[in-house]
Amino acid sequence: MLVGVAVVGCGYWGPNLIRNFYESNEVDLRWVCDLQSERLNSIRKRFPTVAQTTRLEEVLADPKVDAVCVATPSNTHFELAKLILESGRHVLVEKPLCDSSDKVEQLIEIAERRGRVLMVDHTFLYNPAVRCVRGIIDSGRLGNLLYFDSTRVNLGLFQRDVNVLWDLAVHDLAMMDYLIPDRRPFAVSATGVAHVTGQPENMAYLTCFYDDNLVAHIHANWLAPVKLRRTLIGGEKQMIVYDDLEPSERVKVYDKGITVTDESEIKELLISYRSGDCWSPKIPAGEALQNEVRHFVDCIRSGASPLSDGHAGLRVVKLIEAGTKSMQLRGEPVELK
């Protein structure tokens, strides 16, 4: 039986979600909702069989709608998702889940009380390349992890309501949370600058500190001349470079590092450099959003908790909140509860 779905919001990211729901053999895409009629006209040309409306009430009045996907500005996520959950529907919300951790916690409580699926669109968790990286880490090939270093920069899109951490760094924080599931940072430090007067910070450097000397660093920037989407993960045995813009060999594993020898007789540490092979694993085919849509439907049918559930969304939002507070304190570390 098909799962009836509606998509609310068809601005920048919404059309991508609409397309993947429309093309799914397990979904009946019944509605697209947006306040701007000109956007709906564009969707009507591409998906003429899908009903359009400017009123969410009309969507929720349809008994065949089982789930709603929210792809609207982040400051509207809470009210919309709350309304959808309270109506008895499952909900998939574009990242970030909400603009505050308090609101996320309320949504989690409502979803658990109503027995509904609450899922956040952390797209990269469903990217085959990121799944491959997780498999390599889980295999133990890298050894003890030393650092997670990610760069996500481009020219635009400047946001008026949120800083660059909420817009770009959220992707890397979600990946970090997924790739390092057994450890959580205890503090966050961040610095950032707004180069446009009166607007949020358009570039930021965020560092997450862990108990065992593992460190994570993220550079996010809307004001870069080139587009970069690159993550380095260093381990004691091997290291990984994941470049999402690489047309082939997006994941490379390097057998490189250092070997430390304790020469107690001369009372010093000797560091030797190790340089071995580099290999690139084969990445399975498949679009991340296709995988995400399939996972959302599977969770609705089985009642399982999504990989990017409300609690995953909460952990990421707490990190961004701490980073934003640290920026206001000019980089002073903010401890996480």
Textual characterization of the structure:
There is one protein chain. 33% of the residues lie in helices and 31% in strands. It is α/β, with parallel strands linked by helices and 337 residues long. The strands form 2 sheets. The chain has a 9-stranded mixed beta sheet with strand order 14-13-12-11-7-10-9-8-15. It has a 6-stranded parallel beta sheet with strand order 3-2-1-4-5-6, sandwiched between helices. Helix 7 (164-179) crosses helix 9 (310-328). It is globular. It starts with a strand and ends with a strand.
Q: Count the strands? A: 15
- Portion in beta strands: 25-35%
CATH architecture of the largest domain: 2-Layer Sandwich
- Quote the CATH topology of the largest domain: Dihydrodipicolinate Reductase, domain 2
Radius of gyration: 22 Å
> Strand order, biggest sheet?
14-13-12-11-7-10-9-8-15
CATH superfamily of the largest domain: Dihydrodipicolinate Reductase, domain 2
Gap from first CA to last CA: 43 Å
What count of structural domains?
A: 2
Indicate the overall shape: globular
pLDDT averaged over residues: 95
Helix content: 25-40%
Please identify the top-level CATH class of the largest domain: Alpha Beta
SSE layout and pairing:
Layout (H helix, E strand, L loop, with lengths): L2 E6 L5 H10 L3 E7 L3 H10 L4 E3 L2 H5 L6 E4 L6 H10 L3 E5 L6 H14 L3 E4 L6 H12 L5 E11 L8 H16 L7 E7 L9 E7 L5 E7 L1 E13 L3 E5 L7 E13 L4 E12 L8 H15 L7 H19 L5 E2 L2
Parallel strand pairs: 1-2, 1-4, 2-3, 4-5, 5-6, 7-10
Antiparallel strand pairs: 7-11, 8-9, 8-15, 9-10, 11-12, 12-13, 13-14
Helix pairs in contact: 4-5, 5-9, 7-9
